[in-house]
Amino acid sequence: xxxxxxxxxxxxxxxxxxxxxxxxxxxxxxxxxxxxxxxxxxxxxxxxxxxxxxxxxxxxxxxxxxxxxxxxxxxxxxxxxxxxxxxxxxxxxxxxxxxxxxxxxxxxxxxxxxxxxxxxxxxxxxxxxxxxxxxxxxxxxxxxxxxxxxxxxxxxxxxxxxxxxxxxxxxxxxxxxxxxxxxxxxxxxxxxxxxxxxxxxxxxxxxxxxxxxxxxxxxxxxxxxxxxxxxxxxxxxxxxxxxxxxxxxxxxxxxxxxxxxxxxxxxxxxxxxxxxxxxxxxxxxxxxxxxxxxxxxxxxxxxxxxxxxxxxxxxxxxxxxxxxxxxxxxxxxxxxxxxxxxxxxxxxxxxxxxxxxxxxxxxxxxxxxxxxxxxxxxxxxxxxxxxxxxxxxxxxxxxxxxxxxxxxxxxxxxxxxxxxxxxxxxxxxxxxxxxxxxxxxxxxxx
Length: 446
Ligand SMILES: Cc1cc2nc3c(=O)[nH]c(=O)nc-3n(C[C@H](O)[C@H](O)[C@H](O)COP(=O)(O)OP(=O)(O)OC[C@H]3O[C@@H](n4cnc5c(N)ncnc54)[C@H](O)[C@@H]3O)c2cc1C
Prior knowledge:
The chain is α+β, with helices and mostly antiparallel strands. The chain is built from 15 helices and 19 strands.
Protein backbone atom coordinates (compact mmCIF):
# COMPACT_ATOMS: atom_id res chain seq x y z
CA UNK A 1 0.00 0.00 0.00
CA UNK A 2 1.41 3.39 -1.00
CA UNK A 3 0.83 5.89 1.81
CA UNK A 4 2.51 8.83 0.07
CA UNK A 5 -0.84 10.38 -1.02
CA UNK A 6 -2.04 10.17 2.58
CA UNK A 7 1.11 11.90 3.86
CA UNK A 8 0.55 14.67 1.33
CA UNK A 9 -3.14 15.06 2.08
CA UNK A 10 -3.06 15.39 5.87
CA UNK A 11 -1.45 18.07 8.01
CA UNK A 12 -1.04 15.70 10.97
CA UNK A 13 1.56 12.95 11.07
CA UNK A 14 1.38 9.61 9.27
CA UNK A 15 3.40 6.68 10.58
CA UNK A 16 3.97 3.32 8.96
CA UNK A 17 4.97 0.28 11.00
CA UNK A 18 8.49 0.56 12.34
CA UNK A 19 8.99 4.26 11.63
CA UNK A 20 10.39 6.52 14.32
CA UNK A 21 7.72 7.23 16.94
CA UNK A 22 5.73 4.17 15.93
CA UNK A 23 5.92 2.38 19.29
CA UNK A 24 4.79 5.40 21.25
CA UNK A 25 2.00 6.12 18.78
CA UNK A 26 0.53 2.63 18.87
CA UNK A 27 0.56 2.24 22.66
CA UNK A 28 -2.80 2.81 24.32
CA UNK A 29 -4.27 2.36 27.77
CA UNK A 30 -5.63 -1.00 26.67
CA UNK A 31 -2.33 -2.30 25.31
CA UNK A 32 -0.44 -2.35 22.04
CA UNK A 33 -1.71 -3.34 18.62
CA UNK A 34 -0.06 -3.41 15.23
CA UNK A 35 -2.05 -1.20 12.86
CA UNK A 36 -0.77 -0.90 9.32
CA UNK A 37 -0.72 2.90 9.44
CA UNK A 38 -1.31 5.46 12.19
CA UNK A 39 -2.71 8.87 11.27
CA UNK A 40 -2.46 11.38 14.08
CA UNK A 41 -4.96 13.86 12.76
CA UNK A 42 -4.64 17.55 13.50
CA UNK A 43 -7.92 18.72 11.97
CA UNK A 44 -11.36 17.57 10.90
CA UNK A 45 -10.15 17.67 7.28
CA UNK A 46 -7.44 15.19 8.24
CA UNK A 47 -10.14 12.85 9.54
CA UNK A 48 -11.95 13.03 6.19
CA UNK A 49 -8.72 12.33 4.32
CA UNK A 50 -7.84 9.39 6.55
CA UNK A 51 -11.32 7.90 6.19
CA UNK A 52 -11.24 8.28 2.39
CA UNK A 53 -7.80 6.69 2.29
CA UNK A 54 -8.94 3.73 4.42
CA UNK A 55 -11.99 3.24 2.19
CA UNK A 56 -10.02 3.54 -1.05
CA UNK A 57 -7.37 1.10 0.14
CA UNK A 58 -10.06 -1.29 1.47
CA UNK A 59 -8.70 -1.25 4.98
CA UNK A 60 -10.68 -1.08 8.19
CA UNK A 61 -10.71 2.35 9.86
CA UNK A 62 -9.74 2.02 13.53
CA UNK A 63 -10.83 5.07 15.51
CA UNK A 64 -9.06 5.97 18.74
CA UNK A 65 -10.05 8.64 21.23
CA UNK A 66 -9.03 7.83 24.83
CA UNK A 67 -7.63 4.44 23.84
CA UNK A 68 -9.22 2.52 26.71
CA UNK A 69 -10.96 -0.15 24.67
CA UNK A 70 -9.52 -3.43 23.47
CA UNK A 71 -10.12 -2.45 19.83
CA UNK A 72 -6.81 -0.57 19.80
CA UNK A 73 -4.91 -3.77 20.57
CA UNK A 74 -5.84 -5.62 17.36
CA UNK A 75 -3.61 -5.74 14.30
CA UNK A 76 -4.06 -4.17 10.84
CA UNK A 77 -6.18 -1.27 9.73
CA UNK A 78 -5.68 2.47 9.44
CA UNK A 79 -5.63 3.83 12.98
CA UNK A 80 -7.13 7.32 13.11
CA UNK A 81 -5.84 8.85 16.33
CA UNK A 82 -8.09 11.75 17.38
CA UNK A 83 -5.99 12.82 20.38
CA UNK A 84 -5.31 16.31 18.97
CA UNK A 85 -9.03 17.05 18.56
CA UNK A 86 -9.34 17.86 22.24
CA UNK A 87 -10.99 21.30 22.36
CA UNK A 88 -13.57 21.85 25.10
CA UNK A 89 -15.74 24.94 24.73
CA UNK A 90 -18.73 26.11 26.77
CA UNK A 91 -21.37 28.00 24.80
CA UNK A 92 -24.86 29.31 25.47
CA UNK A 93 -27.66 26.86 24.71
CA UNK A 94 -30.22 28.62 22.50
CA UNK A 95 -32.86 26.68 24.49
CA UNK A 96 -31.47 28.03 27.79
CA UNK A 97 -28.57 26.94 29.97
CA UNK A 98 -25.18 25.89 28.67
CA UNK A 99 -23.83 23.51 26.09
CA UNK A 100 -20.33 22.08 26.02
CA UNK A 101 -18.75 21.34 22.66
CA UNK A 102 -16.10 18.68 22.97
CA UNK A 103 -13.59 17.53 20.37
CA UNK A 104 -13.85 13.87 19.35
CA UNK A 105 -10.48 13.02 20.89
CA UNK A 106 -10.94 14.77 24.24
CA UNK A 107 -10.79 13.02 27.58
CA UNK A 108 -13.19 13.37 30.48
CA UNK A 109 -10.67 14.96 32.85
CA UNK A 110 -10.29 17.94 30.51
CA UNK A 111 -14.05 18.28 30.12
CA UNK A 112 -14.60 18.20 33.88
CA UNK A 113 -11.82 20.79 34.47
CA UNK A 114 -13.25 23.25 31.93
CA UNK A 115 -16.81 22.87 33.16
CA UNK A 116 -15.84 23.16 36.83
CA UNK A 117 -14.33 26.60 36.16
CA UNK A 118 -17.88 27.73 35.33
CA UNK A 119 -19.69 25.80 38.07
CA UNK A 120 -20.94 23.25 35.54
CA UNK A 121 -20.70 19.51 34.98
CA UNK A 122 -22.02 16.61 32.96
CA UNK A 123 -22.32 13.00 33.96
CA UNK A 124 -19.25 11.38 32.47
CA UNK A 125 -16.88 8.54 33.22
CA UNK A 126 -15.09 8.22 36.53
CA UNK A 127 -11.57 8.24 35.11
CA UNK A 128 -9.77 11.30 33.72
CA UNK A 129 -8.04 9.61 30.80
CA UNK A 130 -11.09 7.77 29.42
CA UNK A 131 -12.15 9.19 26.06
CA UNK A 132 -15.33 11.16 25.58
CA UNK A 133 -15.64 9.32 22.24
CA UNK A 134 -15.80 5.68 23.27
CA UNK A 135 -17.62 6.27 26.54
CA UNK A 136 -20.38 8.46 25.07
CA UNK A 137 -20.96 6.38 21.96
CA UNK A 138 -21.41 3.29 24.15
CA UNK A 139 -23.63 5.04 26.74
CA UNK A 140 -21.48 6.30 29.60
CA UNK A 141 -22.32 5.55 33.24
CA UNK A 142 -20.95 8.16 35.62
CA UNK A 143 -21.42 9.80 39.00
CA UNK A 144 -24.54 11.72 38.01
CA UNK A 145 -26.30 8.88 36.21
CA UNK A 146 -29.25 8.92 38.62
CA UNK A 147 -29.61 12.69 38.40
CA UNK A 148 -29.00 13.33 34.71
CA UNK A 149 -28.81 9.92 32.99
CA UNK A 150 -26.03 8.54 30.83
CA UNK A 151 -23.42 10.71 29.14
CA UNK A 152 -25.20 9.78 25.89
CA UNK A 153 -28.49 11.08 27.28
CA UNK A 154 -26.91 14.53 27.48
CA UNK A 155 -25.75 14.45 23.86
CA UNK A 156 -27.78 16.94 21.82
CA UNK A 157 -25.67 17.21 18.68
CA UNK A 158 -22.51 16.09 16.93
CA UNK A 159 -20.30 16.66 13.93
CA UNK A 160 -19.58 13.42 12.09
CA UNK A 161 -17.22 12.41 9.30
CA UNK A 162 -19.10 9.69 7.44
CA UNK A 163 -17.69 6.57 5.78
CA UNK A 164 -17.65 8.62 2.55
CA UNK A 165 -15.41 11.21 4.23
CA UNK A 166 -18.23 13.78 4.20
CA UNK A 167 -18.91 16.11 7.12
CA UNK A 168 -22.44 16.15 8.56
CA UNK A 169 -23.98 18.12 11.42
CA UNK A 170 -26.27 15.98 13.52
CA UNK A 171 -28.97 17.20 15.90
CA UNK A 172 -32.64 16.64 16.74
CA UNK A 173 -33.50 18.69 13.65
CA UNK A 174 -30.85 17.32 11.29
CA UNK A 175 -30.28 13.55 10.85
CA UNK A 176 -32.16 12.88 14.10
CA UNK A 177 -32.04 9.13 13.52
CA UNK A 178 -28.24 9.27 13.36
CA UNK A 179 -28.21 11.21 16.64
CA UNK A 180 -30.29 8.38 18.11
CA UNK A 181 -27.63 5.87 16.96
CA UNK A 182 -24.79 7.90 18.48
CA UNK A 183 -26.46 7.69 21.89
CA UNK A 184 -25.32 4.14 22.57
CA UNK A 185 -24.84 2.50 19.17
CA UNK A 186 -21.04 2.71 19.38
CA UNK A 187 -18.53 3.85 16.78
CA UNK A 188 -20.39 2.15 13.94
CA UNK A 189 -21.66 5.17 12.03
CA UNK A 190 -18.74 7.50 11.39
CA UNK A 191 -16.03 9.44 13.18
CA UNK A 192 -17.46 11.95 15.61
CA UNK A 193 -15.23 15.00 15.49
CA UNK A 194 -17.33 17.07 17.92
CA UNK A 195 -19.83 16.14 20.62
CA UNK A 196 -22.37 18.72 21.89
CA UNK A 197 -23.65 18.04 25.39
CA UNK A 198 -26.15 19.81 27.60
CA UNK A 199 -24.26 20.92 30.73
CA UNK A 200 -25.76 21.14 34.22
CA UNK A 201 -25.12 23.37 37.22
CA UNK A 202 -22.63 21.60 39.45
CA UNK A 203 -21.09 23.84 42.08
CA UNK A 204 -19.57 20.93 44.04
CA UNK A 205 -20.10 17.36 45.10
CA UNK A 206 -19.98 15.64 48.46
CA UNK A 207 -17.92 12.52 48.17
CA UNK A 208 -17.82 9.74 50.74
CA UNK A 209 -15.68 6.62 50.85
CA UNK A 210 -16.76 3.96 53.32
CA UNK A 211 -14.34 1.15 54.05
CA UNK A 212 -16.36 -2.01 54.72
CA UNK A 213 -15.41 -5.46 55.96
CA UNK A 214 -17.01 -8.83 56.53
CA UNK A 215 -19.78 -10.62 54.66
CA UNK A 216 -20.82 -8.58 51.60
CA UNK A 217 -24.41 -9.85 51.68
CA UNK A 218 -25.90 -7.76 54.52
CA UNK A 219 -23.93 -4.70 53.39
CA UNK A 220 -25.23 -4.97 49.84
CA UNK A 221 -28.76 -5.56 51.15
CA UNK A 222 -28.69 -2.31 53.13
CA UNK A 223 -27.07 -0.46 50.21
CA UNK A 224 -29.85 -1.66 47.90
CA UNK A 225 -32.55 -0.58 50.37
CA UNK A 226 -30.94 2.84 50.82
CA UNK A 227 -30.86 3.45 47.08
CA UNK A 228 -34.46 2.28 46.62
CA UNK A 229 -35.70 5.50 48.22
CA UNK A 230 -32.67 7.80 47.98
CA UNK A 231 -32.89 11.19 46.27
CA UNK A 232 -31.41 11.15 42.79
CA UNK A 233 -28.61 13.45 43.90
CA UNK A 234 -27.04 10.25 45.26
CA UNK A 235 -25.12 7.72 43.17
CA UNK A 236 -23.00 4.98 44.73
CA UNK A 237 -20.60 2.24 43.80
CA UNK A 238 -19.60 -0.87 45.71
CA UNK A 239 -16.20 -2.24 44.83
CA UNK A 240 -14.35 -5.27 46.18
CA UNK A 241 -10.92 -5.86 44.68
CA UNK A 242 -7.91 -8.05 45.43
CA UNK A 243 -4.49 -6.51 46.01
CA UNK A 244 -3.31 -5.44 42.54
CA UNK A 245 -1.04 -2.42 42.72
CA UNK A 246 -0.40 0.41 45.18
CA UNK A 247 -2.91 2.71 43.42
CA UNK A 248 -5.74 0.26 44.09
CA UNK A 249 -5.67 -1.02 47.66
CA UNK A 250 -7.31 -4.38 48.30
CA UNK A 251 -10.66 -4.72 50.03
CA UNK A 252 -14.24 -3.61 49.79
CA UNK A 253 -15.49 -0.05 49.80
CA UNK A 254 -18.57 1.98 49.01
CA UNK A 255 -18.09 5.31 47.30
CA UNK A 256 -20.97 7.76 47.31
CA UNK A 257 -21.31 10.97 45.33
CA UNK A 258 -23.90 13.59 46.17
CA UNK A 259 -24.62 16.52 43.87
CA UNK A 260 -24.16 19.80 45.76
CA UNK A 261 -22.32 20.76 48.91
CA UNK A 262 -24.75 19.55 51.57
CA UNK A 263 -22.71 17.14 53.70
CA UNK A 264 -25.62 16.58 56.07
CA UNK A 265 -27.89 15.54 53.22
CA UNK A 266 -25.43 12.83 52.21
CA UNK A 267 -25.05 11.64 55.80
CA UNK A 268 -28.84 11.42 56.14
CA UNK A 269 -29.20 9.50 52.89
CA UNK A 270 -26.49 7.04 53.97
CA UNK A 271 -27.61 6.79 57.63
CA UNK A 272 -28.58 3.07 57.60
CA UNK A 273 -25.20 2.22 56.09
CA UNK A 274 -23.23 4.45 58.44
CA UNK A 275 -24.87 2.62 61.36
CA UNK A 276 -23.47 -0.76 60.30
CA UNK A 277 -20.61 -2.28 62.32
CA UNK A 278 -19.22 -3.46 58.98
CA UNK A 279 -18.37 0.14 58.08
CA UNK A 280 -14.84 0.48 59.40
CA UNK A 281 -13.93 3.96 58.19
CA UNK A 282 -15.62 6.97 56.62
CA UNK A 283 -14.00 9.75 54.65
CA UNK A 284 -16.54 12.40 53.66
CA UNK A 285 -15.90 15.86 52.26
CA UNK A 286 -17.07 18.52 49.81
CA UNK A 287 -14.98 18.44 46.66
CA UNK A 288 -14.82 19.93 43.21
CA UNK A 289 -16.09 17.31 40.75
CA UNK A 290 -12.77 16.94 38.86
CA UNK A 291 -11.11 16.01 42.18
CA UNK A 292 -13.10 12.80 42.50
CA UNK A 293 -12.11 11.52 39.07
CA UNK A 294 -9.54 8.74 39.09
CA UNK A 295 -6.26 8.44 37.23
CA UNK A 296 -5.51 5.27 35.29
CA UNK A 297 -1.80 4.69 34.70
CA UNK A 298 -0.67 3.51 31.23
CA UNK A 299 0.09 -0.21 31.48
CA UNK A 300 3.55 -1.56 30.78
CA UNK A 301 3.48 -2.71 27.12
CA UNK A 302 5.79 -5.59 28.06
CA UNK A 303 3.21 -6.93 30.54
CA UNK A 304 0.04 -8.02 28.74
CA UNK A 305 -3.08 -7.45 30.83
CA UNK A 306 -4.59 -10.65 32.30
CA UNK A 307 -7.81 -12.02 30.83
CA UNK A 308 -11.11 -11.57 32.64
CA UNK A 309 -13.58 -14.40 33.21
CA UNK A 310 -16.93 -12.86 33.96
CA UNK A 311 -18.84 -9.92 32.62
CA UNK A 312 -21.53 -7.42 33.51
CA UNK A 313 -25.25 -7.28 33.73
CA UNK A 314 -27.90 -4.55 34.04
CA UNK A 315 -30.05 -5.58 36.97
CA UNK A 316 -33.71 -4.66 37.39
CA UNK A 317 -34.20 -6.33 40.77
CA UNK A 318 -31.16 -6.76 42.98
CA UNK A 319 -32.77 -9.40 45.17
CA UNK A 320 -31.12 -11.37 47.99
CA UNK A 321 -30.54 -14.37 45.76
CA UNK A 322 -28.61 -12.32 43.20
CA UNK A 323 -26.63 -10.58 45.94
CA UNK A 324 -25.73 -14.02 47.30
CA UNK A 325 -24.64 -15.21 43.85
CA UNK A 326 -22.47 -12.16 43.22
CA UNK A 327 -20.86 -12.38 46.66
CA UNK A 328 -20.21 -16.11 46.21
CA UNK A 329 -18.59 -15.48 42.81
CA UNK A 330 -16.19 -12.98 44.40
CA UNK A 331 -15.47 -15.23 47.40
CA UNK A 332 -14.82 -18.26 45.19
CA UNK A 333 -11.65 -16.82 43.63
CA UNK A 334 -9.13 -14.67 45.48
CA UNK A 335 -8.04 -12.88 42.29
CA UNK A 336 -11.45 -11.53 41.35
CA UNK A 337 -13.42 -8.29 41.48
CA UNK A 338 -17.00 -7.35 42.23
CA UNK A 339 -18.35 -3.95 41.26
CA UNK A 340 -21.85 -2.52 41.52
CA UNK A 341 -23.20 0.90 40.63
CA UNK A 342 -26.62 2.30 41.34
CA UNK A 343 -28.83 3.24 38.41
CA UNK A 344 -32.51 4.24 38.34
CA UNK A 345 -33.59 7.87 38.68
CA UNK A 346 -33.10 9.90 35.50
CA UNK A 347 -31.48 6.92 33.78
CA UNK A 348 -34.76 5.02 34.08
CA UNK A 349 -36.93 7.90 32.90
CA UNK A 350 -35.50 7.85 29.38
CA UNK A 351 -37.84 5.86 27.13
CA UNK A 352 -36.37 2.53 26.00
CA UNK A 353 -36.66 3.49 22.34
CA UNK A 354 -35.17 6.97 22.81
CA UNK A 355 -31.62 5.57 22.65
CA UNK A 356 -30.04 2.22 21.70
CA UNK A 357 -28.91 1.65 25.32
CA UNK A 358 -30.50 -1.52 26.73
CA UNK A 359 -32.45 -2.14 29.94
CA UNK A 360 -33.69 1.27 31.06
CA UNK A 361 -35.55 -0.54 33.81
CA UNK A 362 -32.27 -1.46 35.50
CA UNK A 363 -31.68 -0.15 39.01
CA UNK A 364 -28.16 -1.54 39.34
CA UNK A 365 -25.20 -2.30 37.14
CA UNK A 366 -23.17 -5.31 38.33
CA UNK A 367 -19.82 -6.50 37.08
CA UNK A 368 -17.80 -9.43 38.36
CA UNK A 369 -14.84 -11.32 37.04
CA UNK A 370 -11.88 -13.46 37.92
CA UNK A 371 -8.49 -12.65 36.49
CA UNK A 372 -7.37 -15.29 34.03
CA UNK A 373 -3.74 -15.50 35.05
CA UNK A 374 -1.72 -18.23 33.30
CA UNK A 375 -0.78 -20.91 35.81
CA UNK A 376 -3.49 -19.86 38.27
CA UNK A 377 -6.59 -20.84 36.31
CA UNK A 378 -6.81 -24.15 34.44
CA UNK A 379 -9.36 -25.10 31.75
CA UNK A 380 -11.71 -26.83 34.17
CA UNK A 381 -11.79 -23.87 36.55
CA UNK A 382 -12.20 -21.43 33.65
CA UNK A 383 -15.23 -23.38 32.40
CA UNK A 384 -16.67 -23.45 35.92
CA UNK A 385 -16.29 -19.70 36.34
CA UNK A 386 -17.74 -19.01 32.91
CA UNK A 387 -20.79 -21.12 33.73
CA UNK A 388 -21.20 -19.44 37.12
CA UNK A 389 -21.04 -16.02 35.50
CA UNK A 390 -23.47 -17.00 32.73
CA UNK A 391 -26.03 -17.93 35.42
CA UNK A 392 -25.63 -14.54 37.08
CA UNK A 393 -25.75 -12.61 33.82
CA UNK A 394 -28.95 -14.36 32.82
CA UNK A 395 -30.66 -12.81 35.84
CA UNK A 396 -30.03 -9.33 34.48
CA UNK A 397 -31.86 -7.51 31.69
CA UNK A 398 -28.94 -6.74 29.37
CA UNK A 399 -25.22 -6.12 29.10
CA UNK A 400 -23.28 -2.86 28.85
CA UNK A 401 -20.82 -3.16 25.97
CA UNK A 402 -18.39 -0.50 27.18
CA UNK A 403 -17.54 -2.47 30.30
CA UNK A 404 -16.31 -5.50 28.40
CA UNK A 405 -12.88 -6.42 27.20
CA UNK A 406 -14.14 -8.63 24.42
CA UNK A 407 -13.52 -7.99 20.72
CA UNK A 408 -15.81 -10.88 19.77
CA UNK A 409 -17.65 -9.75 16.60
CA UNK A 410 -20.79 -11.55 17.78
CA UNK A 411 -21.03 -9.61 21.02
CA UNK A 412 -23.17 -6.75 19.69
CA UNK A 413 -26.04 -9.19 19.19
CA UNK A 414 -26.07 -9.74 22.96
CA UNK A 415 -26.04 -6.02 23.74
CA UNK A 416 -29.07 -4.78 21.85
CA UNK A 417 -32.66 -6.02 21.99
CA UNK A 418 -33.84 -7.25 18.55
CA UNK A 419 -35.91 -4.16 17.70
CA UNK A 420 -32.99 -1.88 18.61
CA UNK A 421 -30.61 -4.00 16.56
CA UNK A 422 -32.93 -3.86 13.55
CA UNK A 423 -32.96 -0.06 13.73
CA UNK A 424 -29.16 0.06 14.08
CA UNK A 425 -28.70 -2.33 11.16
CA UNK A 426 -30.86 -0.12 8.92
CA UNK A 427 -28.82 2.94 9.89
CA UNK A 428 -25.56 1.10 9.37
CA UNK A 429 -26.69 0.17 5.86
CA UNK A 430 -27.40 3.84 5.22
CA UNK A 431 -24.24 5.37 6.72
CA UNK A 432 -21.57 2.67 6.43
CA UNK A 433 -22.74 -0.04 4.00
CA UNK A 434 -19.21 -1.39 3.51
CA UNK A 435 -18.58 -1.65 7.25
CA UNK A 436 -15.47 0.52 7.21
CA UNK A 437 -16.04 1.16 10.92
CA UNK A 438 -16.06 -2.40 12.17
CA UNK A 439 -13.59 -2.16 15.07
CA UNK A 440 -16.29 -1.78 17.67
CA UNK A 441 -19.21 -3.82 18.96
CA UNK A 442 -20.07 -4.20 15.34
CA UNK A 443 -23.47 -3.68 13.82
CA UNK A 444 -23.20 -5.50 10.52
CA UNK A 445 -25.02 -3.73 7.66
CA UNK A 446 -27.96 -5.64 6.22
C1 LIG B 1 -9.92 2.67 33.49
C2 LIG B 1 -11.29 2.65 32.86
C3 LIG B 1 -12.32 3.34 33.47
C4 LIG B 1 -13.60 3.34 32.88
N1 LIG B 1 -14.61 4.02 33.50
C5 LIG B 1 -15.83 4.02 32.93
C6 LIG B 1 -16.91 4.71 33.56
O1 LIG B 1 -16.79 5.31 34.63
N2 LIG B 1 -18.11 4.68 32.96
C7 LIG B 1 -18.32 4.02 31.79
O2 LIG B 1 -19.43 4.05 31.28
N3 LIG B 1 -17.32 3.37 31.16
C8 LIG B 1 -16.09 3.34 31.71
N4 LIG B 1 -15.10 2.65 31.12
C9 LIG B 1 -15.36 1.94 29.86
C10 LIG B 1 -15.21 2.91 28.70
O3 LIG B 1 -16.43 3.58 28.51
C11 LIG B 1 -14.82 2.16 27.40
O4 LIG B 1 -13.63 1.48 27.59
C12 LIG B 1 -14.72 3.13 26.24
O5 LIG B 1 -14.70 2.40 25.03
C13 LIG B 1 -13.46 3.96 26.32
O6 LIG B 1 -13.49 4.97 25.36
P1 LIG B 1 -12.11 5.54 24.80
O7 LIG B 1 -12.46 6.66 23.89
O8 LIG B 1 -11.18 5.81 25.92
O9 LIG B 1 -11.56 4.29 24.02
P2 LIG B 1 -11.12 4.08 22.51
O10 LIG B 1 -10.48 2.73 22.51
O11 LIG B 1 -10.35 5.22 21.99
O12 LIG B 1 -12.49 4.04 21.74
C14 LIG B 1 -13.36 2.92 21.85
C15 LIG B 1 -14.15 2.77 20.56
O13 LIG B 1 -15.08 3.84 20.50
C16 LIG B 1 -15.18 4.32 19.18
N5 LIG B 1 -14.80 5.74 19.19
C17 LIG B 1 -14.12 6.41 20.12
N6 LIG B 1 -14.11 7.72 19.83
C18 LIG B 1 -14.78 7.87 18.69
C19 LIG B 1 -15.14 8.98 17.90
N7 LIG B 1 -14.80 10.22 18.25
N8 LIG B 1 -15.86 8.76 16.78
C20 LIG B 1 -16.23 7.51 16.42
N9 LIG B 1 -15.92 6.42 17.12
C21 LIG B 1 -15.22 6.61 18.26
C22 LIG B 1 -14.31 3.46 18.33
O14 LIG B 1 -15.10 2.42 17.79
C23 LIG B 1 -13.33 2.89 19.30
O15 LIG B 1 -12.86 1.63 18.91
C24 LIG B 1 -13.82 2.63 31.68
C25 LIG B 1 -12.78 1.92 31.09
C26 LIG B 1 -11.52 1.91 31.67
C27 LIG B 1 -10.42 1.14 31.01
